[in-house]
Design a protein that fits this description.
elongated, 2 strands, mainly alpha, 153 residues
Amino acid sequence: MEFYDLLKKLSPKIRAIAYKLKGHFSAFNEEDLYQEAVVNLWQEYKKDKLLDKTDSYILQGCYFFLKNYIRKNRDKARLLSIEDNLGEEGAPFEELFLKDEKTLYVRDYLDDLLIADTIRNNGLSVREKEILTYYADGLTTREIGKEMGASHV
């Protein structure tokens, strides 16, 4: 049997398995779990490990693979979205991440990081990049001058 035919036949049940596991482990997206199962199925197919196996055996293998995948990757999974609201008052996620007790939201901070990365990769000299790195670490102008052995002016 060709892989496409096998996948077409088992796809609804693999999606059901992914849906069931997503319910128990909400940090994972149902579609991502489905895709992980399909990739594993493809790898097993290419190794000719599915030739004499029943559909039930293959589906059980998908289930155990996904449970193991979740176990290994649970700590790496993003548990919250920036768009989600948290708390009883419905405080936005961004408000939970204030930098240095200021009202700097996560999106602003990420924008600053992207701008800094763009600046860093657009023709700055090695010394200018070093200064930018010190600045990003929170050093003052005087401290940067001292680190580099130069006047802060």
